[in-house]
Amino acid sequence: MPLRVYDTLKQKKADFVPLHAGKVGMYVCGMTVQDKPHMGHMLAFVSGDMIRRYLEYLGFEVAYVQNFTDIDDKIIDRANQEGVDYRVVVERNIEAYHRIAAAVNIKPATLYPYATQHIPEIIAMVSQLIERGYAYAAAGGDVYFRVRTKKDYGKLSKRDIDDLISGARVEVGENKEDPLDFALWKAAKPGEPYWDSPWGQGRPGWHIECSAMATKYLGETLDFHGGGEDLIFPHHENELAQSECATGKEYVRQWAHNGLLNLRGQKMSKSTGHFFGMEDVLKEFDGQVVRFYLLSTHFRSQMEYSRERLEASEKTFERLVNACRSIDEHRGRLSGGPAVSSAQGRDLVAAAEKARVSFLAAMDDDFNSAGAIGYMFELIKTYNVMLDENPAAIAASREGLDAVWDSLSLFDRVLGLFREGLPTAAEDIPADILLALEERNNAKKTKDFKRADELRDKILSAGFLIEDTAAGVRVRRK
Question: What's the confidence (pLDDT) of residue 276?
């Protein structure tokens, strides 16, 4: 079946057809880097990464651009509070983003453009808007976009321009023709970073940077534009308006907005301090678990964050890890031996194929990762049940084991659940952990339970689990 995608602007699903056959241009609004990433940020970036991975699986060549807003009032305020250059704040938080993105297995973007590295492109687009009558230079050096010149302004957010008027205000120091107009270029205040422009020293407004960078790298019409639904208005509405007025062309073919991650019913936000920082979360949970948790709900849905939900996801993820290790262990024992066909093996092959078809159908339905994960666990359940009912037959079925392994590999390729591929039975356990396990076993034999508990805690705190198996006690990574 074809890939069908829900578009925020059209408010319906439609078959995805790229502007250029075989290629996809995708832009995802990145962070304003006055601080380090929190869980709400990761929902947007994991969602974008999941969409990209599936498009690549389908054979598209994806140009994936994710910007950094590296100059704005909040960044300047943070730098002033710390008594440092604004670039110190910027680079510190961008480094944190890349480190955390790697932990949750987000593929590096094709490009990470910074706003301050594209001042010439921004100035050129603002100049073009002025020339066409869509923008004007105001007294004092600011430049504003004339909202009323875009006759369909509000079409993305479904807001009526007359309703917007009642809430519009002109702030002190603004010289707007109309309260609805928004800034394309801001005149520099004393002590602020600035760049020279035809309108005086200043810096870009928030919305114009995305238009300038997206069109530079992806062309005047993008296939996909992603970001959180909190960006629909005003950011994406304004971005759409200025882009289409500057180019005269459709700006985005598919708007893909993710839902919000809430904490006690309120949106996570740096501005309110109502959030969980990713660095703190990763001290307790593996980044792979965080990714699994975020993908377990459809990306357009609202999510409620809680430690309890992460813990539940950790346990569910562990079931996946254990299944992979079990399958790999049985496959390893059959390596080099004759292929054995059996009724049970053929049933397992059929179950793997059914799961694969259902998984891809879910992904084709607007990137439904939650539904896809459900089919993945149906396959794992089938494998475990068949293994319990007839362990000898399943353990001897190379065709069945290979089919399940191949399906799980496909699921991982699409969802990116594991940083280094499917977990295997063989692990490189550090020597000190193995020594601690052996010492713990000896302590239990001599009934030195206090020492045994101390060694258990040491092993657990190092990120390993202790398991009693038919072959004896062993450790494995969490």
Answer: 80
Nearest to 28 by CA among 255, 266, 253: 255
E-strand ranges in 310-445 read: none
Last residue of a domain, one of 390, 415, 440: 415
Give the domain-ending residue among 384, 415, 446: 415
Query: Within the chain, which residues score under 50 in pLDDT?
Result: 274, 469-471
Q: Are residues 183 and 282 in the same domain?
A: yes
Find, among 57, 49, 26, 53, the residue nearest to 102 by Cα: 49
Question: Which pair of structure tokens corresponds to residue 432?
Answer: 């000190």
pLDDT tens per residue, range 95-121:
999 999 999 999 999 999 999 999 999
**What pLDDT is recorded for position 435?**
85
Note if the bond before 120 is cis, omega within 30 degrees. Answer: no
**pLDDT score recorded for residue 374:** 98
CB 222 within 8 A of CB 253: yes
CB-hemisphere CA count at 13 Å for 73?
6
Q: Strand, helix or coil at 290? A: helix
Write the CATH number for 361: 1.20.120.640
Question: Do 294 and 311 belong together in one domain?
Answer: no
- How is 283-346 classified by DSSP, letter by letter? HHS-HHHHHHHHHTS-TTS-EEE-HHHHHHHHHHHHHHHHHHHHHHHHHHHHTTSPP---HHHH
How crowded is residue 468: how many other Cβ atoms within 10 Å of its Cβ? 8
Task: Give me the pLDDT at residue 468, please.
Answer: 63
Which residues, at least 6 apart from 352, have a Cβ–Cβ distance to it below 8 Å? Answer: 379, 400, 403, 404, 406, 407
Question: Which range of residues forms the domain containing residue 455?
Answer: 431-477
Cβ proximity of 115 and 204 under 8 Å: yes
